[in-house]
Amino acid sequence: MSENRIDLTSLGQSEEELFSFQLEDDSASEHIAAPKYSYWGSVFRRFFSSKVAIVMMVIALALVLFAFIQPIISGYDHTYTPNINNKSMHYLRPFTKGFIFGTDDKGNSLFDALWSGTKNSLLISIGATLITEFIGIVVGMFWGYSKKVDVVMIEVYNVLSNIPTTLVAMILVYTMGGGIPQLIFAMCVTTWVGTAYFIRVQVMIIRDREYNLASRCLGTPLPKIILNNILPYLISVIITSVSRDIPSFISLEVALTFLGVGLGEKKASLGKMVYQYAPYMTTAGYLFWIPVTTSAILSISLYIVGQYLADASDPRTHMI
Amino acid sequence: MSTNEVKDKEVLVSVEHVDVTFTNGRKKFRAVTDANFDIYRGETFALVGESGSGKTTIARAIIRLNEISAGEIKFQGKRISGKLTKEDRQWVVRNIQMIFQDPAASLNERATIDYCVSEGLYNFKLYENEEDRERKVDWALQQVGLLPEHKSRYPHEFSGGQRQRIGIARALIMEPSFIIADEPISALDVSIRAQVLNLMNKFKKENDLTYMFIAHDLSVVRYFADRIAVIHLGRIVEIAPAVELFQYPLHPYTNSLLQAVPMPDPEIEKAKKIVPYDASHEVLDDTSRLREVRPGHFVFMADSEVEKYRTKLEEMERTVSE
Q1: Chain A residue with Cα closest to B172
Q2: Cβ atoms of residues B157 and A37 within 8 Å
Q3: Of A23, A31, A148, B317, which is most buried, counting CB atoms within 10 Å of its CB?
Q4: Does residue A36 fall inside a structural domain?
Q5: Residue in A24, A26, A30, A313 to test binding to B, most B beta-carbons within 10 Å
Q6: Is it true that domain B3-321 has CATH number 2.40.30.90?
Q7: Quick one: angle between helices B113-124 and B160-172, nearest 10?
Q8: Mean pLDDT, residues A123-135
Q9: Which of A86-95, B83-92, B182-191, B232-241 is the least confident region?
Q10: Is the ipTM of this complex over 0.90?
């Protein structure tokens, strides 16, 4: 072994120069070298790492912004039809006489009508989604956490979930009259219970995990446990649920209008346009296909953005 | 650690004829039957038994996570089981804390260490101002060998041993007098078990703590506990001071448990005869209860078995004195 020893002086430096004493420091081993983790920072990094997500988000944002801004500029009024008796203005094909999407059966610009309709459809679906999710999450949290609430709520669920949403909405819109608030109310009456049930199951999965027991041992009150221990775990499933709800409410609005109980005559909506122009599919196809395409692009882009956001908000994807 | 020292001490926790029954619809399951023991101030009381024997159930009954179906649990002579007023419930939380088995599962993954450790402080407003709270959290983290810079980190960034120490800091900051440790080291790497146990021992001395230590591993208990209770299928079969139990394991189940501990000696292991525990040899009737056979040493037996255990004990005493 002694032959293997390197003669330190051959390096041209003395031992004092080569070695120095270091103090032992236990805390040095506790140090974490990894950069600080931030939840929302990781969510956005993950989300923006996907090109599809960025493209879809740009499309969805552009459609939503345009739908809310364009009607203000055009001042479109669905009941105002100055060209109704001027037959030469009816059914103009797209890009004629300065009408980008042509004119409809009353001589109004389809372009203006489309964005006004999109705005109303979005208002209805976003409003209904917010209300459904809010009630669903609050009720679902307590439903999942408390066994006493569960006994009552499961019966409420059995009753409400067996009533067809469309039927309830039809009856309510018939009795209350068509309008955006009425339609939102009619849509939310039964759908919140589905969201609540979905949240209940998720809460039940994580309710009895040890960290919740630890919080109880530390005397944390129930609302605080729900807010700090359970809600953060549900962000990704809530986003999934929202991204499913918005398109489904858009299609529910279309379906209700198709059954004749939609927004009424005073306001345009995507659903009504699809319903109204379906017979023109072969004669003036653009009247039907433009609203259908808009509705489809809107639904799909919102849904895909929601799915990517839901994925990104799941911390299990942050480590990879 | 001596037996006599413990005997004069006051009773801190007393579990009196406690049953815990779980109901699922009409099905009933009695997880704990007639648990009856005292824990003295300043001691480490160990509860040992196999999986599913009801160790954790008893611990959770004491800390009020499980409801009891019979009997009574007292803390400092005051009833803490059943319905309590809000003040009493808070008093229990302030005085009894728990260290959990799985350090990964017992910390909120979406909260920073700062929040995890100060959760109890927030609940009881145990700080004067924000500065005071931060000082307390820093102190607790330092006590368990962690750094104040860890406060802004999330639990998943820590190793198992570090996480368990966060769990200890969280219990410690409440300044409790009684801590229930539910298998605190069984989920940890062997190399850091001693670190956590030494830490717990240090706090016991410094803060005048009483521990209830739950384990399935007798080798750890031997090192750590003052008194040991052996539990089997929800029933406590033997309670004795640690030294005594290892010297005179009277109940056959205790014997089997002791045998299961591997010895780091191939000669002993080769010669060892494994005797699996067979409950059918035990008598279980109306007269079955814990009886004191030596000072502080209780064994669960029926009237008809008293003679059998006496001769067994005499035999053991003879071999020990030889």
Answers
A1: A218
A2: yes
A3: B317
A4: no
A5: A30
A6: no
A7: 20
A8: 94
A9: A86-95
A10: no
